[in-house]
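Researcher: Structure for this, please.
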Amino acid sequence: MKNLRFDLASSDLGEVALERSNLKLESRSRGRTSKTNMSSKLVSQFSKFVVIGLMNTSIDFGILNLLMWWTDIYRGKWIILLNVIAFSVAVINSYLWNKHWTFRAKEADEPGEVAKEFSQFMMVTLIGLAINSSIVFGITTFISPFFGLSPELWANLAKMAATGLSLIWNFIGYKFIVFKK
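Model: Predicted structure, token format:
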């Protein structure tokens, strides 16, 4: 408010000081508005990402449980194959929904752009898959189920932990590598 102090008798000087003050206030409010818009957009994108993540998780868990039931495999090295299959189906769903709804990526003009975007998506996703599968394998293979839980329930708890950690990596990778604007 220092800029508002002036002598009313010298109105020209007062108008200049008042205009300077208004410009500062206006520029400060614009800065807050753009930061608020950016924060709002980030929250909106992350919320959509979580909704899609829940859908993908349902697909992933459903397929994994179906495969475990069919094969009677609940631990060891073969659970990695089952997890990769389930995760891969969910990833295709993820790509389509995140591209068109969460990040509203523009359609690529040239086939090379589509290939580049999809290869970046797959790179981020494969790192997420490695994180996810390593956690599922590590927990189901090296940690015995607590509280007398069944191997099926233990595998699902491991998958929940893996999903939470890979979710963080995937959001950051998709937002800043794949669908950046």
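Researcher: Any notable elements?
Model: Residues 42-178 form one domain. The first helix runs from residue 11 to 71.
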